[in-house]
UniProtKB/TrEMBL annotation, chains A, B, C, D:
Gene3D superfamilies: 3.40.50.880. This is ThuA domain-containing protein. Pfam families: ThuA. It comes from the Bacteria. Residues 3-218 form the ThuA-like domain.
Length: 240, 240, 240, 240
């Protein structure tokens, strides 16, 4: 059974009644809930727990880590970020949501600024499926429509994704590569744009479907990590 | 000096006064003109010429072929299509414009239906640059805005492009991968979306800049075609 | 349950006792056998059956088509090739093996010559895993070693694969991109190099594992084909 | 005129007479020499200079940075690495050679361990061209052969390259993705494998040709860096 840890900064929920009304159990609670219903083994972790809730024991028992952060990226300790990065390279799947684009963990895995344009103006968003073969888009029609969301616009400063699955249209004139996969080491990563804290985006069933699909997609393949370093002395491999 | 052949179906120009007013010398004439000013050696060819103007002699002396077609894709002879395809595989660059997405030559090179959504409703289009490193986007700002264009929407049934340079936003709610490169054999291909015949799109200086850049990008590398077939007998290559 | 059809030209088996001794039930029979043991619903089809065994009824009930051909690519009827291509674009998975690189179906889906170098010299092959995240490499170590195989060498004239999973080393000095995925329309394609008819390659358990994994990978996603053509008239989508 | 800075650790040259005999002016001196002959404006910089020779003034006046390091990656100051990374994201081209795969700058740009297999056994290497369209392969035949080199083998722990141009064959049974491009921010990166310090690899004319070609390829496109951050308030863009 795939073991998922949903990590959330959990600060907006403490400060902003709009957010805590939409997500009474926190964004992490909402995500954990719909993943549990899909028969995953789910736990949550938040910034203010010791080691941000990401102890070695937790990380070692996590197949897929979901990440939501925004206000306090800088408070995440570098040492924890390094451990998470190593776990991804060792095969743990990672799903980065919305403002997590600016998290330390996403930035060290991408190598770029991960910067973008944004605007809070209650705009309509349409996430168009541009890769209809992809299992992350299973069960989704031609697009997902969200009545109101924060706008994210290009240029999105990421490496060209290995696969581009969704591209968003925004009412105000921007587009955004909003569903992207990346492989790093033995790990698979999925970035998914929607989820501004003041909208009920994670209650949307299609958004939930995408995240459920993504868990299945990024979970580790059953392989040992390759061997690196000084290789065997030259065999007489070619001598017949 | 790079030798460019601009191919145009040249039918709308004969039938529709709106088109012939915008493009008195035809779409091919307009494109040839701004390419000539960039110091390329340019000729034109059209559907109704013998062999569609694409004789072996013309093809052999073409480094980059620009393609615009719409009404009469089915009238292009299969034999000519095969010759063009072979020239692309041998290294000739190919720039496919707008409704050329449904040309035989583009479809045989892609292997897919190349189908898409469309709507003629005088919509605003914004072509956002999503790859700021790319020489095809040189001299272009963050986006190109076209006041009125035909809408093309996803899903665009092409293989995942090797490089995605532009993505279009349309007023009516759609997005489209509108600037894409592909490599086939020794040849480079650039698909560029804008250019519906009833709008003065090819008079837009930024659109012209992109096409000029593209000619430079898809022109053949200075290499011989690789050798295929039965290889040399096994050398005693590994015996030191 | 995934429904697999294993297609084989089945000519070498009739002519060459070396081949029929290695594969008494034909190459298709051998492949069908190990797929059946993996709980797939498997049937076979061969060139000399009516419609090459690929009637519309068979194609409509096939989730994944495996293809082995060599001597008689030209005997496969263009009409059947078109139907198979359409089925791939509609979502059917396709696994092309070894000399199938020159099959009509692979060439129309790639748009290139699919040419390569080759040599029959009983050379050792090592297929190195270059994408350790990929489910097609599940259960495989760092490489698969085949004591004797036909050599295939670069340049392999295919579009850049969407994912490169294996690259082969050959004793005589060549390398080859030997495990490649491609997406076309709604369909996923896997090309896998090994399997010259005079070697017992399809009895190798690791080769079998890769093909089993590939069936799982290329089987259709559960989606409806996107809608193409003239789109809805412009909604007043942006009017809040 | 393109301004190139060739950076070298320059330690082997001080310690090992084998190296200083092959490269009397250092590896940086040898590379600078053949680039100068190609009409580039070239300077060099080395580890033991103040700020490793990479002052802000030098970096700001560098279009393409070439990097060779091996023994002392850890001695490169993090602050300098950050500045170089920022310059790449701002558009400076970067060419990383051989053991530079383990440099801090390459690792932060890749986000992975960049680990690999290696063996020093005077093995023959053949770098096969797998992308014949690429300008970095201009003037190169089917492969480059180096009589003796250090072996690097897969798995090479990098993100899937944007373009794979060369793949190496080694006598002892390994293969390696030895010529790879990556885009990060506004910058283009080329990793090129050959160049172990005890072999005269950078005196090889084909290796020189590749590096010359690469300088041309990774030099910055003529564009302004995109605008990030809070975007303009929602225009009434859609209101016709």
């Amino acid at each position: 059974m795939t073991r998922v840890t949903v990590w959330n900064e959990n600060r907006h929920e403490q400060k902003n009644p709009v957010v805590s009304e939409i997500y009474p159990k926190g964004i992490h609670g909402a995500i954990a809930e719909f993943l549990q219903s899909d028969n995953y083994e789910v736990r949550t972790a938040t910034l203010d727990e010791p080691e941000h809730g990401l102890t070695e024991e937790v990380l070692e028992n996590t197949d897929v880590l979901v990440w939501w952060g925004h206000l306090a990226h800088h408070e995440v300790q570098d040492e924890i970020v390094k451990k998470v990065q190593q776990r991804v390279l060792d095969g743990m799947g990672l799903i980065v949501l919305h403002s997590g684009h600016f998290s330390k963990i996403f930035k060290v895995l991408m190598g770029t600024s991960c910067d973008l344009k944004w605007r809070e103006a209650d705009e309509k968003e349409r996430l168009w499926v541009v890769d209809p073969t992809h299992p992350i888009a299973e069960g989704i029609g031609e697009y997902i429509e969200l009545e109101k969301e924060e706008m994210y616009g290009e240029h999105f400063d990421i490496p060209a994704p290995d696969e581009l699955i969704f591209t968003s249209w925004f009412e105000g004139g921007e587009i955004f590569r909003s569903g992207c996969t990346f492989k790093r080491g033995n790990g698979k990563i999925f970035y998914f744009r929607p989820g501004h804290e003041t909208y009920p985006t994670y209650h949307n069933e299609q958004v939930q479907q995408v995240i459920k699909n993504a868990v299945k997609y990024v979970k580790p393949a059953d392989r040992k990590r390759p061997v690196y370093g000084n290789a065997q002395p030259l065999e007489t491999i070619s001598a017949k």
